[in-house]
């Protein structure tokens, strides 16, 4: 029906399984804080503060050594604290500043990201789902701005 060979389907499954295995929390990791707990809230608050103030050192301090960022459906992936630090440095280095609005996605902490515009209006630019281990962030999945309404977030925030 799909006009696919057994070999091509088997190959696709192998690649998908390998990708999932890379992204799954490792068995030796500390468990994530309880959902909605003060510990989880504190990690998210530190992330929001570091991101909004473009404090790269504070942001990197929240990451595990093997942190993994993906951006479906785009094929961009970044793994490792140094690589992720360079990625965020390029974002912050452009002089852009952001406001983040915390929420939840599939039981995990998440934030809507809004770019501060010159007229004060803040336009939605993306959505991050955070995966935690202990008191650190071990993975981030960034989605396009179109998902913001799915999580009750506006497409833009009014000026302050």
Characterization of this structure:
It is a single chain. The chain has 4 helices and 7 strands; from the N terminus they run αααββαβββββ. With 160 residues, the protein is α+β, with helices and mostly antiparallel strands. The protein has one domain: Nuclear Transport Factor 2, Chain: A (Roll). Strands 1, 2, 3, 4, 5, 6 and 7 form a 7-stranded mixed sheet that branches. β4 and β5 form a beta hairpin. It is globular and about 55 Å long. The relative contact order is 0.16. The mean pLDDT is 89.
- Main beta-sheet strand count, sense and barrel state: 7 strands, mixed
Number of domains: 1
Provide the CATH architecture.
Roll
Bin the helical content.
Answer: 25-40%
Oligomer kind = single chain
CATH class: Alpha Beta
Instruction: Tell me the number of strands.
Output: 7
The residue-averaged pLDDT reads: 89
The class by helix and strand makeup works out as alpha+beta
Order of helices and strands: HHHEEHEEEEE
What is the overall number of helices? 4
